[in-house]
Amino acid sequence: MARAVVQLPDRQLAALKDAYGQPARAKRLRLIAAGVVALGLIGLAAIQAEVDPKTFLAKIGGFTSYFDRMATLDFGARVWTDPAAWFWSFKRSARLLRETIPIAYVGTLTGAVIAFALNFVAAPKLTRRAWLVFAVRRGLEFCRTVPDVVFALIFVVAFGLGALPGVLAIAIHSTGSLGKQFFETTENIDMKPIEGLRASGASYVQTIRFAALPQVIASFTTFALLRFEINVRGATVLGFVGAGGIGQDLMEAVRKFYYSDVSAILVMIIAVVMAIDIGTQYLRRALLSEGRLP
């Protein structure tokens, strides 16, 4: 059975199109205005920070030439043409990387455990004492606001050169960073299981264990694995101030203009971080597939 298609008169159709187009035009105008304001703020910030585009354009060649020198051996050949000469200190760098990774691992694990314990206290849905929530959140802010390099410098003065200052610095910074991610995740949980256990007379620990933890443990694992990957890079930087690991050799190569050594160390660090990223991805999938994470 054929159906007739109703064609509105041109006046009514034009009015409908105009009514539909007005909100769209208003939205475009708001987006344009927001873009103009953002560009203006960026320009003002650049002027206040004394950012000079002329200097950037004039010096950009030095930036690119540095990478060109990093890809050149001392006798003029490209690094990939002679891997033996490029990675002449491979054994030493590998040994220092084996020191860097445990620094990041122990620091991340320590920070994750402390952040795990504190995040439930920092979540108002689970902790009804406002002063306690305030105190814990301010403490976590302090831990993540102070750069880990500053903590490392303090601990190097206190405990001397070595891995311990690096572990402590990473642990404190990881506590602050993971603590915020953890308690923000905890704040978004479904409160019905919490209220049910509270109504049945469950204790605070039982409420956390059986109502809150199953909802957040998968996200916590993801955040912790990501923080471990970040901390491997962080442990490298901490080596600049004597906190152990391969960072000290990297800093020495930079200061002495051993360009090919810098690129060799960076390639090894990048390879390790990529391997950790792939490994943690498979680890989380394995935990989820085996049902060890809810």
List the helices and strands and how they pair.
Elements: H1 10-48, H2 53-70, H3 83-86, H4 90-122, H5 130-145, H6 148-159, H7 163-187, H8 191-199, H9 204-238, H10 247-255, H11 259-289
Task: Tell me what the structure shows.
This protein has two domains: 10-51; 87-289, MetI-like fold, CATH 1.10.3720.10. The protein is 79% helix and 0% strand. The protein has 294 residues and is mostly helical. The chain contains eleven helices and no strands. It has helices at 10-48, 53-70, 83-86, 90-122, 130-145, 148-159, 163-187, 191-199, 204-238, 247-255, 259-289.
- Tell me the major beta sheet: none
Oligomer: single chain
In total, the number of domains comes to 2
Basic shape = extended
**Alpha-beta content class:** mainly alpha
- The appropriate CATH architecture of the largest domain is Orthogonal Bundle
Low-confidence stretches: none
Give the overall pLDDT as a whole number: 84
Strand content: under 5%
Number of strands: 0
What is the CATH superfamily classification of the largest domain? MetI-like
Question: Could you estimate the helical fraction of the residues in percent?
Answer: over 70%
Per CATH, the class of the largest domain reads: Mainly Alpha
Total DSSP helices: 11
Briefly note the CATH topology name of the largest domain: MetI-like fold
> What is the straight-line distance between the termini?
55 Å
Radius of gyration: 28 Å
What's the order of the H and E elements? HHHHHHHHHHH
Short description:
Helices cover about 80% and strands about 0% of the residues. It is built from eleven helices and no strands. The two termini are about 55 Å apart.
